Amino acid sequence: MDVRSAAAGCALVAVVLLTAGCVLPDQMYQVQADLDDVRRELEEIRAKQAAAETSLTEIASRVSAQDPVSRAAFADLTLRVEDQARTTAALSERIDEALRRVDGLSTSVEAAREDARRAAQRSAAVLPAPFGGDPSPAVPTQAPSPTAASPRGAAEALYNAAYADYAKGNYALAISGFEEYAQRFPDSSLADNALYWVGECHFSQGAYDRAIEAFDRMLERHPESDRAAAANLKKGLAYLENNQVAEAIVQLRFVESRYGASDEARIARDKLASLGARP
pTM of the full predicted structure? Predict the structure, then answer.
C-alpha cells in the first residue's frame, strides 16, 4: 500500500469517527482495527523510506562524477523521497488524531456505564408493594433518565462500557464488565458476545488457558452463536500460543471442516499449512 492509499484509508476512518454518536461497540472495534492496520502499513512505508534514503546516499557518491543528466535524475529522485517523507508525517498526525477521538468516545461510554449502575442501585431500593399496593422507595431518590433506568438501557450501557475498556486495553476492567453483563443479562442478544470478549481479553493478556476456558464456556452456552466460528478459531490459536501444538491442530482442523466457507476456516487452513499439517 502506497502513501496515497494509506491517506485515503485514514480519511475514511476520520469520517467514521466524526459520526461517533452512532458507533456501535463492534464497529468501534473495527475502527480501531482499521487504524492499527494503517499504522502498521505506515511503519512499512517508513522502513522503505529509510532504505531509500540509504540508497540515495550511496548513489550520490556514484553520481557526483557522472554526466549532468544523471545528476538531474538523482536530484529529482531526492525531491520525491523528501515529498514522501512529508506526506508520511502528515498521515501519522492524522492517525494520532483519530485515535484520540476513539479514546474520547470510550470515555463517554464509561460515563454511561456509571449512570446505569446508579440507576440499578436506585431500582433495588424500591420495596415490594404490600397487598398489591403501589411500591414505595425506601429512600427518596432523584428520577433516573429514561434510557439508563430501563433494563435495556442499563444493559446497553454496561456492555458498551465493557467494550470501551477492551478497546482501550483495560482488559481487567473489560473482563469484569463483560462477566457482569453475562450474569445479569444471560438471555440478551449480546450475552454470547460478552462471553466471547472475555476470552479475547484473556487472549490479549497472554492468559491462554483462561482464554480457552472462556471460549469453551461461551460455546457451551451459545453453540449456535454467530461468534462460534471465531471462538473456535481463537481457541485453536490459544492452544498454539500455549505450545499445545497437537491440540491446536485438532482444533484448527475442526474449524476448517465445520466452517468451510468462512474467513475463520481460511485462517485455520493457513495456520495448518504453516504447521505442515494437512487440513
Answer: 0.52
